[in-house]
Task: inverse folding
């Protein structure tokens, strides 16, 4: 019996407009609750952005947000995983060495911080994933605990940037280019797979009782922590190879329809 469903959001649960079928979600989620199944959104989006996205419909869901560095439920922070301050600062320096014009998003549990000179169109992109965004003259003004460093590059150089940073900090951080325009840096061993394992332990849920969905390079770990792992039809090849099954695309409600079909098959 499935007790936990974990899904990525962008490109997986959400459609290409960044929204979802609320009526279908409400029906599926209500049935999940009756069956005692937990629902978790595992995403690079800021937890508070996810809370706004689901609104009143998200009561009781688990949010593994900020690239799985924070776990929240019903507005309460359950766990956070921080990156060493000096490593975070060094990561920012190496990104700036690669290209000083890169859009860096330095995140703490309080907010996401960007350079004060950021262009309006790039700031709009950041706001698509982060609810609390603060502009700073220098990242050195941040005195809280870093949870992650994210880079958005409209030129699609995240793979080259990853290699550059790895050359300097390999073995000290976890770094992944989830797609050509996005790159995340977190504490070593802090990623979607490890954070879901912590949630599984908290809930007393096993690998065999977990279902997962994903589409990007950073969702490969999600395919490894669930017996019933699904790559959506629009997923990258590595995620499809790692998945046990392929389902409909994010534009076809692949996640919700698959959960619904599973529950229909297990009705007594």
Result:
């Amino acid at each position: 019996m499935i007790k936990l469903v974990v899904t990525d959001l962008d490109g997986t649960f959400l459609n290409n407009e960044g929204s979802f079928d609320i009526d279908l979600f409400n029906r599926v989620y209500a049935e999940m609750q009756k069956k005692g199944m937990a629902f978790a959104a595992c995403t690079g989006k800021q937890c508070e952005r996810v809370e706004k996205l689901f609104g009143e419909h998200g009561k009781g869901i688990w949010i593994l947000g900020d690239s799985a560095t924070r776990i929240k439920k019903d507005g309460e922070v359950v766990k956070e995983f921080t990156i060493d301050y000096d490593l975070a600062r060094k990561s920012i320096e190496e990104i700036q060495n690669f290209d000083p014009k890169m859009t860096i998003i330095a995140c703490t549990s309080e907010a996401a911080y960007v350079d004060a000179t950021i262009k309006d169109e790039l700031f709009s992109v950041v706001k698509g994933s982060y609810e609390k965004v603060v502009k700073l003259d220098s990242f050195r003004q941040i005195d809280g605990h870093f949870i992650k460093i994210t880079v958005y590059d409209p030129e699609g150089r995240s793979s080259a940037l990853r290699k550059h940073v790895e050359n300097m900090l390999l073995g000290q951080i976890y770094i992944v280019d989830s797609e050509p325009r996005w790159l995340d840096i977190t504490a070593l061993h802090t990623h979607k797979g490890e954070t879901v394992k912590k949630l599984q332990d908290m809930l007393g849920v096993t690998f065999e009782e977990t279902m997962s969905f994903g589409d990007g390079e950073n969702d490969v770990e999600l395919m490894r922590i669930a017996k019933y792992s699904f790559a959506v039809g629009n997923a990258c090849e590595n995620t499809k190879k790692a998945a046990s099954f392929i389902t409909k695309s994010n534009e076809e409600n692949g996640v919700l329809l698959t959960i619904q079909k599973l529950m229909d098959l297990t009705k007594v």
Summary: The mean pLDDT is 96.
